[in-house]
Amino acid sequence: MGNVVVVGSQWGDEGKGKIVDWLSERADVVVRFQGGHNAGHTLVIDGVSYKLSLLPSGVVRSGKLSVIGNGVVFDPHAFVAERKRLEAQGVSISPASLRIADNASLILSLHRELDATRENNAGTGTKIGTTGRGIGPAYEDKVGRRAIRVMDLAHPESLPERIERLLAHHNPLRRGLGQPEIDAATILEELTSVAHEITPFIDRVWRLLDQRRKAGDRILFEGAQGTLLDIDHGTYPFVTSSNTVAGQAAAGSGLGPSSLGFVLGITKAYTTRVGEGPFPSEQDNEVGRFLGEKGREFGTVTGRKRRCGWFDAVLVRQAVALNGIHGLALTKLDVLDGLDEIKIVVGYRLDGTVIDYLPASLAEQRRIEPIYETLEGWKDTTAGARRWNDLPAQAVKYVRHIEELVEAPVTLLSTSPERDDTILVRDPFQD
Ligand code: GDP
Ligand code: IMO
Ligand code: MG
């Protein structure tokens, strides 16, 4: 198949960054195709930790081309800050190693302010718990056909007209929220002050990817967030504002869907969620605290404590179908080491009826009761295992049972945050 699409199969933070970094050794190009700097991907290489939000996780390897596709909402000031932070760690980011799609939409400070104001004004039950990065408002402007785009930074003469159009929408909105209006000069300054930092990276990404594909290069697509945060297929309205499913890799990069290749679903061996919204297998108890502490479940972007619960096979099976997942990368198995027993959600009860899917309605999602199966835990450690044969028998049984329940094979297994603590079962680039 050649290319690989990495997607999160739960609510994000499944370990996509670690797996993309590991797989990028085998790739030539790494592409982000949705989301923005709401993503938080942590890579650990020889004990050194790298935190990425907007940049593709391929940037830490030299000799790879990183690409930010048109499906991403791009905050130029966040880009400059992240580049600076990574360069301080010795990661070089130059126009030769990174290209940014000319047709990606920008996130501006007014988007961040609107995101924060809405969240602060929201009452109990309506707050989303966003990352506060302006993601939702920026996508709204894109769909509303008034966004300022990356290419506009290279054409300062076009900016006044673009800004006027944008403010014709935002200033009435701000007045309604009791906020001061913004004048065009402020936005112009926000953009022109940063334009020179961005313009050397701007490219016609659809053509670049087409050329790389024709040259036989291997392209790795890096999803952000997770399937259950997808704007259409997730736990709406408690979702992010983009399509996070594998299909978006094509629309969000400009490479046709026939070239996408192997779809790899990154899957945590239990479940976590940051922010508000339904979470059927949540364990707000000792088990949840154990998983949170052992798994160090704190958000990379906002530092918030992640909610924790048992593995939910119903949700992951749904994600397998929604993404067309060919194989799973199962991460954080080591966090389960030492538990006497481990539970898995195998179905839900809704108003007395057993169902095998997550209903689309929020009211129904709130009413479902999970049905659990209990498996024996293991006392030996899986942490740092690099060979399948080093895993305790009960851990192997757990993995095999997950494969059966979600109807997808495990292709990769991750046993610690370290890059090399990864077991390759089947090479997704070879399929
Ligand atoms: P992403 O958003 O999907 O890239 O995931 P995050 O980076 O936000 O969260 C995953 C966290 O788990 C990071 O801190 C990783 O370093 C860490 N991690 C990844 N794989 C493993 C694993 O197999 N075991 C353990 N213990 N930690 C892991
Ligand atoms: P990675 O790529 C986990 C969640 C937020 C909130 C909702 C909407 O690290 O897996 P947004 O700021 O996108 O409008 O917030 O989505 N969220 C994530 N949760 N991991 C992420 O990214 C997330 N990106 C957004 O917590 O509930
Ligand atoms: Mg994350």
TrEMBL record:
InterPro entries: Adenylosuccin_syn_GTP-bd, Adenylosuccin_syn_Lys_AS, Adenylosuccinate_synth_dom1, Adenylosuccinate_synth_dom2, Adenylosuccinate_synth_dom3, Adenylosuccinate_synthetase, P-loop_NTPase
Binding positions for GTP per the UniProt entry: 12-18, 40-42, 306, 332-334, 414-416
GO molecular function: adenylosuccinate synthase activity; GTP binding; magnesium ion binding
Chain sites annotated for binding IMP: 13-16, 38-41, 131, 145, 225, 240, 304
Residues given in the record as substrate binding sites: 300-306
Recorded metabolic or biological pathway in which this protein acts: Purine metabolism; AMP biosynthesis via de novo pathway; AMP from IMP: step 1/2
CDD domains documented for this protein: AdSS
Chief place where the protein resides: cytoplasm
Enzyme category, top tier: ligase
Recorded catalytic activity of this chain's protein: IMP + L-aspartate + GTP = N(6)-(1,2-dicarboxyethyl)-AMP + GDP + phosphate + 2 H(+)
Record-linked Gene3D superfamilies: Adenylosuccinate Synthetase, subunit A, domain 1, Adenylosuccinate Synthetase, subunit A, domain 2, Adenylosuccinate Synthetase, subunit A, domain 3
Residues at the catalytic site: 13, 41, 142
Subunit structure: Homodimer.
Family: Belongs to the adenylosuccinate synthetase family.
Record function comment: Plays an important role in the de novo pathway of purine nucleotide biosynthesis. Catalyzes the first committed step in the biosynthesis of AMP from IMP.
Protein's recorded name: Adenylosuccinate synthetase
Organism of this sequence: Aurantimonas aggregata
